[in-house]
Every structure is written in structure tokens, then in C-alpha cells.
Amino acid sequence: MVKSMPGNAYRxxxxxxxxxxxxxxxxxxADVGEIFTVEDRDMLFLARVVNVQHDSNYDGRWDTSIxxxxxxxxxxxxxxxxxxxxxxxxxxxxxxxxxxxxxxxxPTKFSRVKRAEAEEFDFLKDTMGDIEVGVLRNGSxxxxxxxxxxxxxxxxxxxxxATTGMGKSNFMKxxxxxxxxxxxxxxxxxxxxxxxxxxxxxxxxxxxxxxxxLKPYLSSLKCYSTDPRNHSLPEVSELTISRRDILPEDIKxxxxxxxxxxxxxxxxxxxxxxxxxxxxxxxxNGKAMLTEKAKVSEKTVDVLVRKLENIxxxxxxxxxxxxSSIPGIIEGVKSGKVVLIDIPNLSESSELFLLSLISRxxxxxxxxxxxxxxxxMVVIEEAQRxxxxxxxxxxxxxxxxxxxxFGVGLCAITQxxxxxxxxxxxxxxxxxxxxLADRNDRMRVEESAKQDLSSLDVEIQTLEKGEAIxxxxxxxxxxxxxxHRYEDYMERLRPSAPERRSxxxxxx
Amino acid sequence: MKIVHIADTHLGFQSFSRMDEKxxxxxxxxxxxxxxxxxxxxxxxxxxxxxxxxxVFHHVRPRIRPLCIFKQSLERLSSAGIPVxxxxxxxxxxxxxxxxxxxxxxxxxxxxxxxxxxxxERFEVGDHIFHCIPFCFSQxxxxxxxxxxxxxxxxxxxxxxxxxALRDQSMKPVGEHIVSDSFLKSDFSYIALGHYHxxxxxxxxxxxxxxxxxxxxxxxxxxxxxxxxxxxxGGVESIAVPNIGMRVVELDCSGxxxxxxxxxxxxxxxxxxxxxVRIDLRRVNRAAYRRMDQRRLSxxxxxxxxxxxxxxxxxxxxxxxxxxxxxxxLEFVRFLEGExxxxxxxxxxxxxxxxxxxxxxxxxxxxxEGMDASQ
Lengths: 508, 375
What we know:
The complex is a heterodimer of chains A (508) and B (375). Chain A is built from 15 helices and 20 strands. By secondary structure, chain A is α/β, with parallel strands linked by helices. Chain A has three domains: 10-116, no CATH class; 145-238 and 325-493, Rossmann fold, CATH 3.40.50; 244-314. Chain B is an alpha/beta fold and 375 residues long. In chain B, 31% of the residues lie in helices and 22% in strands. Chain B is built from nine helices and 17 strands. In chain B, the strands form four sheets. In chain B, strands 4-3-2-1-13-14 form a six-stranded mixed beta sheet, covered by helices on one side. Chain B has a six-stranded mixed beta sheet with strand order 5-6-7-10-12-11, with helices on one face. A three-stranded parallel beta sheet of chain B has the order 15-16-17. In chain B, strand 5 and strand 6 (128-133) form a beta hairpin. Chain B is elongated and about 95 Å long. Residues 370-375 of chain B have low confidence and may be disordered. Classes of the chains: A alpha/beta (508), B alpha/beta (375). At the A-B interface, strand 12 and helix 8 of A face helix 3 of B.
């Protein structure tokens, strides 16, 4: 039988500063992604498994055979584990630990190798941020080390990359819940804007829970909905957009306009008053003005007006008079709340229209200096539609390129990062990868990430639902994480919720 | 059904230190007078109900006088057959259950419906249900109280607090709560809000009636009064109610002498004998301001309800004026140098530095003084 070192330890055998190798008994398992420690006198090295191979002494390897049966069974077969160095932690004789740093050397040959224990990840606690999303995953095992993103990095943009069913929505709900918790504790550094075209964040899906169920922190959530079934809820406002909020450029995303119609749309801003142009153009006098002053053909004007009428009738939330939700949305974001815009059953173009309109108003507001306001993060579902190489929408491109200057960040969610413009993707400093089957998608993410993800290719392929690799600023290496299940996380948040005032007036 | 919507009467509020012939605070008396006039006007209008959206009293423990005046007004409305629906606001709701709300005094009065028990209450008056959410202890309570509302098809919501859109205009008074946007449902026939003193439409069915009276100079540009609301059509009409009136006047004083400035002030205040006026003197020369005839100014102030003068000095002139202190410093140093033989060696340096510092402070103090004509 294979002999292990005391304490189920193995011994480092090879190879260089970029790759460590050790062997384990042929009937023992090591998972890709699992983290091992290498103890070398005054240094503790950490390494993450990137591959496991069948191996034996019959391949003429002197370093395993020379130790003979001290480590291995009589048949001299074993599994060779190839691990990527993560870094090292200096230790003194009292085992007090220094700061984690990149390893610039290799551990002494035959140093003891062990599966990392929970306390060996303590150093990570100091590098974690304030937005908890899950726990550190060691191979297939979960640790109790919380994985938390940094609020300060959120205006540097975040990408969520995952194929269907890998837990994107769950991640976003957990992320939003942590943001709500921070806002309730007055620790929020940014407001989060989520436009939800699937109606799954507000009340949850068929079996799951939504943000409305997070009762202790509801004061940090603002909800706007186009779904009449939600309008009676005390936490939900009916989404209304005033015609006066809309500029001609906003409706460009609502239709495939011809060149002539686009020209007509652009001339509208020159001819009509900035705010009341819709009402004016729907009027006969307005149509005549457009024909005369912009030299637009009557036919084009008629088509434009007809399409505009169609848009207004399809998007009932656009009101000709009355209040608008936009100021409340912007105020919510500026005060660091989570603002959820629930638009189930709206078309994709309506979703993009709303997102584009609100983003414009946010950028206009954030371009003005305001010391008291929080930063802002705008979540974009299926981001390849607006940040793609061939399908960019200038407004989102503008946020990706210069939003950070004004404190506005993007959270781009996509199944196909390969379709996102390469240059824009390189602006993303936080990436949450939750399983990408397509090689081109993985390559695009790996080449854009601020940390080296190339060695994690196998792990990214083998990620299971709810598992993620998180690459972000301030953490020493890409973090393997198990994202909290939202429903479980809700339960965990409940006890630590701020206590309601216990006293109440006595009944009359 | 037609209702009159009022709010923020703040009975018992005192200000401006001006007394009437009986030694009572003049501002407070004017507030009572104008409140009674408002009740007269309401009785003339003969609405089907009156809604008071909070802050009836300025204090949690009002004195007897405002309590009586309010009681008399309720009795007059009741005699006229006009029901009154009232909620407590952040000013008149006790912040602890150990204190009793002043509204307990009016319990049982005919046609008077008051929500003041920190919980949702509904009153059926005429053909409408009035859903009242009074002042609650915590912001979170409002959601739970709102959840109790069952819409019947003809519903009016009455609340007191600052809507989110006006949050940046908050004066942060004690107990201020936010009225969430999500409460402003379009299904209500009307939403009557109190707390914000400017008459303002918030949504197609949501209004602040504004206060009847002006309470401070920040409110000078605001619209005051009551609202007449037709619940069946949604029509809202502003009702003017007599009030003290408050004005803030800006006078450009650059290059003007003391006499010219005084004449300008007298000219501006000529028609405002009964009003509260603040004159903001822009770019006034410091020396000219100091030379203004104080007795003449006091005579003018005493003939008015209240006159306040707020100078804003001309910065360029001020820079010139700041030069003499430097010369004074030097003069003081030269003087001391001549007297050195009279000062013991051990304290010479201290006397020098203490004296120059003292002179500098005196000169700085000159630059910050203001003048209040009413005092």
C-alpha cells in the first residue's frame, strides 16, 4: 500500500517556479482547483491543482524511484499532481505569518505537501472586500472563508460570464442583497441599477425568492415595475416615463430606422423644443415644420410619426403627462440604494430603450460634481447586444470608456464574451467567470483579465452550477468561489439584520 | 365629492421676538388669526370634508391656547356639517409611547376623524375611504402600515413626510420621514401630503397643499394656501388664504453711499408695513454700511412686522480695508521699539507677539459683524 507522510502529507518533487509537481497514491483523489500547501522551513507555499495524471516509476523518473517504497506501493504506480504556484507566506519559528506574496523561488525538493486547511486561507480575509458573494472553494470543498468583492473596484466595471443555467441570476441576487445590506448599514459606496427583463429579481422565480423577500433591508431597495400585478405592493412603484424625458436619440434603439428616418430623427433636435418634441411632431403643424425646415419628405415624416405612435402604444409606461420615475431612480442610485426596474413582458427593444434612456440621464447627472452622492453601477443583461464589436451602442461604450471618471461603472452580463469588443472588455477590472464551454469565449476572457487565467482553462470548463472564478483588483490571485445560494444567504442575513425598535405604543 | 386639503398649520409657532400689546408673540397670534380665516374660507366653500395632512401643532406638548383654538375650529366645522380627517405629523406626534398625544383631547368629537396612534387607520367619509398613515416611529413601519390598505375603488391616501424627489430640500427637522415613491399609487383618487410647506403637485393625483403661513425666510418664494379637490374628476384648485406674507429683497449696493442705501431700503419697505421682510444688501461697502443712520433704520423696523438686514460686503472693497491692519501691526511694532527700555527683557518678545496678534484679531472681528434691524 502507498505510504503517506505523517498527517496525510506528500512531498514536492518538481519542477520550476511556474509549476509544482508531487505524487499521491493512485487511489487518492485530487481535484482540479484544489489548493495544497508546501511547507518549507520559513515559508509556506500555496499551489492550486491544474491537472492530475496517471504516472508510475516505470517511466524512468529518478526522483520517485529513489525514494522507493517510502512513499509508494510495491507496484510503484501513483497519480502525479501538477499544480500552479499561487504565492507564499513567510513564517518565523513561532509560526507567525507574514504577508502573502508571489513566490520568486521554488520550495526545497521533497518539502511536505498537504491539502490546505481553513486557517491557511486566513490571509485572504484581509484582502477581501465588503460585498460578500460566496465562500472560497478548495477544489470541490467549500471553506468558511467569505469571498467578497470591493466596492471601490465597482466603477472599474465588472463582467459576469456564464452559460445558461450556471447561476447568473442567483449571483446577481446575492450581489444585490449584499449591496442592500451595506446601504442599510450606511456603508454603501455605490448605487446599483438593475433593469430586469425577465421579472425574476423582484419576487424570485417559480421556486426561488426575490429581493422583495429580503425584508430587513427593504429600505435600501427601490422597485419600479411595469407589471400591474406588482403595483399594489407597498415597495413597488409603477414605472412611468414622461414623454418629456425622451430625446430623439433615445428612440433610435427602438426600431430599425432607415437612413432617411435616422436623418429625420437627428433633425428633430434642431427644430423642436428639447422636451416637447414628441407632442409637437404628433401634431399636424409639427409634421409640416419637419417637412419644411428639415426638408424631410412627407412620406418619411408620415412613417416616422406612425412608428412613433406604435412605440407609444406598445410602451404604455410612457405617459403624456404626470410624473416620471426617472428622478426617483437617479435619486435612489445616488443615495447608494439598489434600484430594480422590473419590466417583464416588454420587448427587447423596449428594454434597451429604457436602459439607454436611464443610463443617459445618469451620465448627465454624474457629469456634474456632487460630493455627497455615491458612485453608480449599471447592470446590463446580455451585454453583447450593446457592447459587441459590431453592435455597440454609443451610450454604453461611453460609460465603459469614461464612466469611471464620473463614478459610473458597468456590470456586463453575457454568455458570449467573445462578442464583446476586445478593447471595451479590457476596461473590466472585475470578472466573475461561471463556466464557459466555448473555447473562444474563454480565450477572450483570459486575454482581457487583469490576472492570469490561462492556467485555469480546465477549471473554468469543469465549473459546476454556482461555482465561479473571480478575478478582481486587490486579491492576490483569481479566487475560486462557491456563490451563496440566494435563499440560503437570505436566511443567513436575517439574524444580523438591524433590530426593529422593540417598544410600541400601548394599545388604546 | 369635494374636499379641502390643508396641512402644516403649526399652531403655537413663535418667532421674530415681536410682541403685541398684550405681550403675546405677534407671529404666533398672526398664525392663529390666519388659521381662523382659513376655517372661515373653508366654511364658505362648503366642501364635503376637510383633510389636514399633519403638523396641526408646532409642538408635541402644545400650550392650552393652540389646543383651544384648534378645538373651536373643529367645532365650527362640525357645526357647518363638514367632517374633518386629520393625521399627526412629525411635529405634533410624541416620539415615545410614554407621552400622550394632544389629539386624545379631540377623541369622540362629532365628525372628527384623527389618526394619531402610530398605525394605519381608515375612515369612510362620504363616498370615499380615507386611508390615513400618521407619524410612525420608524421609517420601516410605514411599509407595514401601508400593506394594510385595502383599496375599495374610491380611495384617498393621507400621509405626512418628504417625498423622495424633494429629499435634497430637506431642512432635516426632528422626526422627518420619507414618503416612498412606491406609496404614490395611481389607483388613489387623491393623495394628500403634508410636511413640505410649498404648495406643489408631486404626481397627477398627489399634492402637498403647503402651509397656510410663512415660517422662515427660506419659504419666502413658496406658494401657500389650501387646495380644493374634486375627487370625482381629479381636479385640483388652489385656494388663497390670507397670511402674513414674507419677502426677501435683494438690493445691489455697489458704489452707493450710506444715505442712498437707506433710501433704497425705505423705498422697498414702504408698502410692507405688516409684512416680514429681509433686505439682502449685495456688494455693500463696509464703511458705508457702518455709517448708516441706525436710529432711522430702527424707526423703520419698529413700524413693520419684522425687518431684517443682511449685508454681503463688497469683497474688493474689503481687500482694501484689510490693508490698514498690516500698517497697524507695523505701527505697533515701531511704537514698542521706542518703548523697549521700559519693558523687561524677559517679556519683550511676548509683549510684541501678543500685541500684534490681538490687533489682528480685532480687525478680523470687524469683518464678520452684521446688523439686525429688528433687534
